Amino acid sequence: MLNLTVNRDSKPPLYRQIAEQIKTQISNGRLPANSRLPTVRSLARTLGVTRLTVQNAYAELQADGWVEATVGRGTFVSTAVQQMSLQPTVGQFLTPDSAINDMLAINQVIGVRSMAMAHADPSLFPTEAFWQQMERLRPQANNLLSYGPIQGDAALRLAIVQLLHEDGIEATPDDILVTSGAMQSISLAAQAIAQPGDMVLVEQPTFLGVLNVLKAQGLRPLHLPVQPDGPDPAQMEQLIQTHRPRLFYTVANHHNPTGFTTSPAKRQAILKLAQRHNLLIIEDDIYGKLGFAGPPPPSYKQQDDDDRVLYLSSFSKILMPGLRVGYLLMPTAWRDQLLTLRRATDLCGTGLLQRALAHFLQEGGLKKHLRRVLPIYQERRDALLNSLQRWMPTAVRWSEPQGGFSCWVSLPHYAPPGVLYYQALQNGFAFTPGEAYMLEEKGREYLRLCFGNLGTEGIEAGVKLLGSLIQQQLTSRTTGGDWLPYV
């Protein structure tokens, strides 16, 4: 039976509260496929809200594929809703590739509430404003849909230079390589700098996509533990002296998966280390503009005096991932090789999308969008932290991200995420086990929760479920053990 409440003192609109609660009850199996929902009139009377409020809730559920409505019959839970089947990797040591595959697959399943992917909420995309730019380009469509410049649309490169200038990074359009997202930038940079068999220094834990790239290119990752204020420069220097890595890959702002931000002092110390040991740095700043407490500290590139930082970012997190537009700031010494690799793998991107994005940026669309969505994402971050505080057992710890979409949770040794992953999926909830981001087995002690794509009610429902599953594991074990919090 449908059990709903509304809170008129809560920030989310009443229709969104209703929709989120229905999604939760579909996810946990209380409302299986083909279940009939109350009529609009009946539910409005029960909850003491207007019929328009219920109609808006049902319309949102239908638009997202959770329910189906038929005139004369009513509204039913969609037949597309399904319980998530057990993945072959569950309970085993995940590889970065299998984890990425699972996240993408889970994201397509209606009926699963996912905090597994660090991505923006599609309902917040500036679709209408961007579409207007596309419409304006209709007369130029034939030309823009032909092969374009290898470095990317000239207007977009100029707009990116302006963005960089606002962040204190000097560049010219000739320095910019427009790519098909940050992943392509990382792949091109690593392939240009390192040869198969070379050591590459990465943070531990790190973005699982870069581990996937390094494996595909035959490069050997060397882990450097990351702390709440960034990696330890002294430990980093020991690793450099012992192993002589070719490059260092880092996400200094709102780190994925921990949410940490490297302090200004550590950035300066690490850059001096790189200069002293002739170490190149790939700086992934994809989350730099998603801070909740103002601009982040100066980037490595902003302080780069000898052109050793390959700086990259993307519009996937701050706008829309389906654009598949990122960019790489090419040091002069590596420009020819990077362009050669780009020609060998992907001649050019889609000129129409790139030009529309250029106009969107030039007319202030990004700034307007960020002003609108950052308070929403901050509210969801707060909802996650409050829910963790309320529902998690005392043995669990977590990070407190100041931006981005990721929160890193550490568990007792006797509550392995492999088991939780399976149990949570069976209850219609998904996260990513920490082992996917680690180079060692101890990654089983952690998990990542992402707060960007769910409303506050969905976040609390997911954390409440996860907390109860962890508590069940803790109370069912007759033997305990020491555990090491990561934060």
Question: What are the salient characteristics of this protein?
Answer:
single chain; 41% helix; 8-stranded mixed sheet; alpha/beta; 16 helices; 16 strands; 487 residues; 4-stranded antiparallel sheet
Would you kindly provide a written description of the structure presented here, covering whatever features stand out?
By secondary structure, this protein is of the alpha/beta class. The protein is built from 16 helices and 16 strands. It has helices at residues 14-27, 40-47, 51-63, 96-107, 127-136, 141-144, 154-166, 182-193, 208-216, 233-243, 264-276, 335-345, 351-362, 365-391, 417-426, 456-476; strands at residues 67-70, 74-77, 113-114, 176-179, 199-204, 220-227, 230-231, 247-250, 280-284, 309-314, 326-329, 397-398, 406-410, 429-430, 432-433, 446-450. The strands form four sheets. Strands 4-11-10-9-8-5-6-7 form an eight-stranded mixed beta sheet, sandwiched between helices. It has a four-stranded antiparallel beta sheet with strand order 12-13-16-15, covered by helices on one side. A two-stranded antiparallel sheet has the order 1-2. Strand 12 and strand 13 (406-410) form a beta hairpin. The longest helix has 27 residues, at 365-391. 46% of the residues are buried. Mean pLDDT is 88; it is low at 83-93 and 478-487.
Condensed summary:
The protein has 487 residues and is of the alpha/beta class. The protein has helices at residues 14-27, 40-47, 51-63, 96-107, 127-136, 141-144, 154-166, 182-193, 208-216, 233-243, 264-276, 335-345, 351-362, 365-391, 417-426, 456-476; strands spanning 67-70, 74-77, 113-114, 176-179, 199-204, 220-227, 230-231, 247-250, 280-284, 309-314, 326-329, 397-398, 406-410, 429-430, 432-433, 446-450.
